[in-house]
Amino acid sequence: MAPRVLVSDKLSETAVQIFRDRGIDVDFMPDLGKDKEKLAEVIGQYDGLAIRSATKVTAALLEKADHLKVVGRAGIGTDNVDKDAASKKGVIVMNTPFGNMITTAEHAIAMMFAVARQIPEASASTHAGKWEKSRFMGVELTGKTLGVIGAGNIGGIVCDRARGLKMKVVAYDPYLGAEKAEKMGVEKVELEELLTRSDFITLHVPLTDQTRNILSKENLAKTKKGVRIVNCARGGLVDEAALAELLKSGHVAGAGFDVFAEEPATDNVLFNLPNVVCTPHLGASTSEAQENVALQVAEQMSNYLIDGAVENALNMPSMTAEEAKVMGPWVKLAGHLGAFVGQMTDEPIKAINILYDGVVSDMNLAALNCSVIAGIMKRANPDVNLVSAPVVAKERGIQISTTNQDKSGAFDGYIKVTVVTDKRERSVAGTVFSDGKPRFIQIKGINIDAEVGAHMLYTTNEDVPGIIGTLGQTMGQNGVNIANFTLGRASAAGEAIALLYLDEAPRKDALSALEQTGLFRQIKPLQFDIA
Ligand SMILES: NC(=O)c1ccc[n+]([C@@H]2O[C@H](COP(=O)([O-])OP(=O)(O)OC[C@H]3O[C@@H](n4cnc5c(N)ncnc54)[C@H](O)[C@@H]3O)[C@@H](O)[C@H]2O)c1
Ligand SMILES: O=C(O)[C@H](O)COP(=O)(O)O
């Protein structure tokens, strides 16, 4: 059945066409995002949800989203999505980090000009037939100092455009390297210095616990008299009430706000103050940006739903469609190795160590790690997937470590997974053959060569004659067909292992018959998702 996607915000219909062209069943309901009850009623039918900022993807909504695999944000900010709840539920959250950055940077620059020259008020006055030529005295941008808080994608473009306007640019961004700052032609400063030196301040940080209220009452008080402040990033970054007071007192000469602590903002402390220019969250609203983000989000969501490619996800390592093709068998192998050790381990797991050797060590290890962890975690929770597995492992305090090496041996590459518990360590290794089929190649340090099947039986025994016969005969007597039979033995310890690939899961009778022979130390039926 074709995957189903719901578009619940005002996305360009380009997205709808792309979903259709990719064979996805799409419902376009651009106002549904504002109606949380109705959205909750229908969300259970969909594999994908495409949104902008109006739809709130809360934990309560996700509770009802039984088939949801991906939330695609046609835009940048995902503060309207509960990403922790999505990860726990195994839902990928992706955005389009570049599609509207130029448009938003241009809006910030437009706001600076509008505030510097009081254009909206002058326009309103002129429309009213007042011709107040001497009322609107502005300031030039040339030669002024612009303080940019957050010099990422949008902040970086603002810096570039501001330098073109002959402004001096200082930037506060703890994650901006000195070399990058130099390349951008900006002076990297601490927040205190930015506040005291800037004639204009513009914000371009996401809203996080660290950035919330970054322009607090206290920080606003440190700004230069006559400063003009622009916020085209997120409401909540600036103390709006404190700013309103400073605008009234004349300490702040003007402000340009596109975003507000509460949106939609129909009433706000900044409204109707002199020289405050407001727009209703229009930063990304150009035809170019909306085409870009709609196209990108629809492509990304389709690629994920159809090919498993992960792009611009916030809660899962990326994997391009190309990588997904090449890595597909290795991702499967990683899951099987995880499933093997997971099913073999009944006690709490303390640590998971993953070794990548040879060709696989150059691949996207983050995605492979997720697959190993998901395979292991499924022993306790079959609903765990690649997105939720790392969250579940973290919640349980399991330490994950990886090693990658290139010690070419008998195989082009292999993965070895070891789980550590209080009682023991258990390991299994596997590879992918040239036919693209994953194989188990080592269990407990004993070499084997076993194809992976949906139903398998793993046994260990003292290395004595008669084991093959007993296994074959017992399965046969109980009507279980053996598709493949692999044996291995430790050279010194006298232990042997067998891994049988069966046409169906062995029934209890067959397992008790094996137990009754007294020949086996361990008899463990295993299941693998080979679909
Ligand atoms: N008004 C709109 O319509 C609109 C449109 C697009 C994006 N946005 C918003 O603009 C903001 C920036 O988007 P972006 O694409 O440039 O993001 P980005 O991730 O590319 O850049 C954010 C920058 O902030 C920096 N940063 C993080 N924490 C910081 C801190 N505590 N102090 C200082 N700097 C910090 C990061 O290092 C990064 O360089 C986001 O909040 C986004 O939601 C608004
Ligand atoms: O984060 C973003 O991309 C912007 O805030 C745009 O939001 P919008 O899609 O609701 O206009």
UniProtKB/TrEMBL annotation:
* Alphabetized InterPro entries for the sequence: ACT-like_dom_sf (IPR045865), ASB_dom_sf (IPR029009), D-isomer_2_OHA_DH_cat_dom (IPR006139), D-isomer_DH_CS (IPR029753), D-isomer_DH_CS1 (IPR029752), D-isomer_DH_NAD-bd (IPR006140), NAD(P)-bd_dom_sf (IPR036291), PGDH (IPR006236)
The residues covered by the D-isomer specific 2-hydroxyacid dehydrogenase NAD-binding domain are 109-283
Q: Gene3D superfamilies of this UniProt entry?
A: 3.30.70.260, D-3-phosphoglycerate dehydrogenase, domain 3, NAD(P)-binding Rossmann-like Domain
EC number of the protein: 1.1.1.95
What top-level class of enzyme does the UniProt entry assign?
Answer: oxidoreductase
Domain (D-isomer specific 2-hydroxyacid dehydrogenase catalytic): give its ranges. 5-315
The protein's matches in CDD domains, at most eight in alphabetical order, are given as: ACT_3PGDH-xct, PGDH_4
Q: Where is the D-3-phosphoglycerate dehydrogenase ASB domain?
A: 327-444
Any transmembrane segments, and where? none
Highest taxon listed in the record's lineage: Bacteria
Q: Pathway involvement?
A: Amino-acid biosynthesis; L-serine biosynthesis; L-serine from 3-phospho-D-glycerate: step 1/3
Q: Which reaction is this enzyme known to catalyze? A: (2R)-3-phosphoglycerate + NAD(+) = 3-phosphooxypyruvate + NADH + H(+)
* Molecular function GO labels: NAD binding; phosphoglycerate dehydrogenase activity
Q: Which PROSITE patterns match?
A: D_2_HYDROXYACID_DH_1, D_2_HYDROXYACID_DH_2, D_2_HYDROXYACID_DH_3
What keywords would UniProt list here? Answer: Amino-acid biosynthesis, NAD, Oxidoreductase, Serine biosynthesis
Q: Cross-referenced Pfam families, in alphabetical order?
A: 2-Hacid_dh (PF00389), 2-Hacid_dh_C (PF02826), PGDH_inter (PF19304)
The GO biological-process annotations, alphabetized, read as: L-serine biosynthetic process
Q: NCBIfam families under this entry?
A: PGDH (TIGR01327)
Q: Which family does it belong to?
A: Belongs to the D-isomer specific 2-hydroxyacid dehydrogenase family.
Q: What is this protein called?
A: D-3-phosphoglycerate dehydrogenase
What is the species of this protein?
Pseudooceanicola batsensis (strain ATCC BAA-863 / DSM 15984 / KCTC 12145 / HTCC2597) (Oceanicola batsensis)
Organism lineage: Bacteria, Pseudomonadati, Pseudomonadota, Alphaproteobacteria, Rhodobacterales
